[in-house]
Amino acid sequence: MEIKNKIKEYLEKETQRKIESETENLIEAGVLDSFSMIKLIAYIESELKIPVKMEDLSPDNFNSIVSISKTIESHGKKR
Amino acid sequence: MAKLIQEYFTDSATKFPDKAAVYVWHEEKSRIPEYKSRTFSDLEGYSNQIARYLKSKGVQRNDRVALMFMKIMSVDAIATILAILKCDAIYVPVNHSLPAERVAKILKDANVKLLVCMNYSAKALITYEPLSDFNFIEMNKNFEHRQEIDLESKASLEYKNKSDATAYIMYTSGSTGDPKGVEISHANIINATDWAVKEFGITSEDKMSQHPPFNFDLSTFDLYCAFKSGATLYPVPDNLSLFPGELIRFIEENELTIWNSVPSVMVYIWNSGLVKKGIMPSVKKIFFNGEGFPTKFLAEWMKTYPEKEFINMYGPTETTVQCSFYRIPAVPTDLTKLVPIGKATGGMEIFAVDDELYVGGKGVGKGYWNNLEKTQASFISDPRPGKTGIVYKTGDLVRLRDDGNYEFIGRKDNQVKIHGNRIELGDVDSSMYALPYVKKVAVVDIDDPDSGGKKLVAFTDTDESASPSQIKEDLAKKLPRYMIPEEIVEMHLPETSTGKVDRNQLRAYYGNKK
Q: Does the pLDDT at position A52 exceed 80?
């Protein structure tokens, strides 16, 4: 399964929220908050085995399924 | 000496006309703010223009005027607050992320005349039928209202208000599902501000964070301490606290000297692993308020920054930002209990009656707006022999230590704090009962080991038609985000012998399940 779909599936299950589209702003929709953020990063690191560089995350590059996937894929490559 | 809180700003505009009063950092490339910074004299003139405009729209003394802005428009938000005060009117700050139904309840309860906001909010709210006729003033550049404002005179205005006049009404969660408005006077804020500026030596050299939203009374500390001292305010962009790397960069690039926020933000930043010795060197004082700081995390922060001062502030909205404080003298060693809430601040008195904390003094607010019954239940005559005056019953249970400092032990009722936000469990319960498919519900606060704080879990008995995601979606139309339970558990609810839902049994059940 693609990273995008894995993240969407995980977030939907964890937050019990429906994600309308891959470009929906998850912060504004209330899906991504401090509770789900910690869980999501732990999931990406331990289940998807991609190290996340917290210092590089910003509201611009980590707000939707598409942007989150793109950002972590670039983190994975830099390793 | 200022008699009205807007005079703090006017005095600073005279003393430091060309100094930046507000500095807006734009992290979001998609939303560049109109202003990067505005000086004290600029903002003084702009607020006079807005005040004249509001008066031309019929705003009179003691009218309630609401405001709703994202942080990116903080310059306009702050000018609007000053303008409302300059009309001798009362400001009612409303969070821009609240659902229309909740906004409408507040506007109706406070009988608000106008809502000054971003065009984005007005567009969304006007589609909600009960607000379709409401009067909005849209403050975005190039909008008609703003063009009219720009034509008004910048000259100063005269005030009729006295210090005992109400300055703002802030809404907090009410136990029956309706938010209640806490009424705070100019004199209340002056007492809190004059004390804080002197006690902590805040000066025009300081650069202060402005993190809490304006509807949260922690913002009163930032705003008026900066206005009085001539310090510069740095509004923290919305959602930046979710991104510790960016937040640290914000503090470092702007060389902030004072940081004021809720502990849960600091725990979250700590958990990112980015907090290390040597970073954020400009920060001298860290204030926290709104909830207990989980001691394990506080100790880590203090070990990393022995040179910075950590100050625990305590106070319900009803007693104006803070009524007690505690400068933490050394890294706490007992990690099993919270650091004390300390001793009374200037002009205030705190004491316990049957373990419940009572607060007296110049910061005790005027009561709950338009709600005599609730006011009389919590704002009572001083029960101590020979004492007069009104004291506020906090509902917080405390213990007095041998050294004269108070410690917070817990709550008398069903009020909980999530990220510093005060929530009545009954408020969430009633919103859930209002959903047609909910047969029975009990919302419970559960310890969350990740944040060291709490989270809300709703146990519900519903018709099969409703999924947890449906319930959350429907609740988002009624409640602020922080009041939506993190988790919905569907089950048959256990009852006590008297037929009530047994919340303690639910907490135990949840603990065993995990």
A: yes
pLDDT at A65: 97
What are the φ/ψ torsions at residue B183 (nearest 5 degrees)?
-100, 120
Closest CA–CA distance from residue B475 to any residue of chain A (Å): 12
A48 touches chain B (CB under 8 A): no
Mean pLDDT score of chain B: 95
CA-to-CA distance for B458 and B483, rounded, in angstroms?
A: 11
ipTM associated with this complex: 0.93
Sequence-separated (6 or more) residues with CB below 8 Å from residue B142: none
CATH of B347-411, picked from 3.60.15.10, 1.10.10.10, 1.20.1260.10, 2.30.38.10, is 2.30.38.10
Question: What is the reported pLDDT for B310?
Answer: 98
Angular region, B233: left φ>0, alpha ψ -120 to 50, beta rest: beta
- Split into its structural domains, chain A has a count of 1
Pick the residue of A23, A27, A32, A35 with the most B CBs within 10 A to test the interface with B by mutation: A35
Of A18, A34, A55, the CB nearest to B242: A34
Instruction: Judge whether residue B27 has pLDDT over 70.
Output: no
Among 3.40.50.300, 3.30.70.20, 2.60.120.230, 3.40.50.12780, name the CATH number for the domain at B5-187.
3.40.50.12780
Question: Tens digits of per-residue pLDDT, B430-445?
Answer: 999 999 999 999 999 9
The share of chain B scoring above pLDDT 70, in percent, equals 99
Whether A30 has its CB under 8 Å from any CB of chain B: the answer is yes
Structure confidence at residue B365 (pLDDT):
98
Instruction: Please give the single-letter amino acid code of residue B52.
Output: R
Would you say domain B417-513 falls under CATH 3.30.300.30? yes
For A28, the domain range is: 3-78
- By Cβ distance, the residue of B28, B486, B488 closest to A35 is B486
Query: How high is the pLDDT of residue B47?
Result: 98
The SS3 of residue B183 is strand
Cβ within 8 Å, pair B242-A54? no
Is B469's CB within 8 Å of A16's CB? yes
What DSSP letter does each residue of B285-311 carry, written as one string?
EEEE-SS---HHHHHHHHHH-TTSEEE
How many whole angstroms separate alpha carbon B10 and alpha carbon B321? 22
Name the band, by pLDDT with cuts 50, 70 and 90, for residue B137: very high
Is A54 close to B268, i.e. CB distance below 8 A?
A: no
Is the pLDDT confidence value at B29 over 80?
A: no
**Residues B147-182 pLDDT 10s:** 999 999 999 999 999 999 999 999 999 888 889 999
Taking the C-alpha atoms of residue A30 and residue A13, their distance in angstroms, rounded to an integer, is: 14
Distance from the Cα of B270 to chain A's closest Cα (Å) equals 12
Nearest chain A residue (CA) to B472: A17
What Cα–Cα distance (Å) separates residue B423 from each residue in A55, B109, B178, B411, B440?
32, 19, 12, 12, 20
Q: How confident is the model at residue B31 (pLDDT cuts 50, 70, 90)?
A: low
- What's the confidence (pLDDT) of residue B33? 75
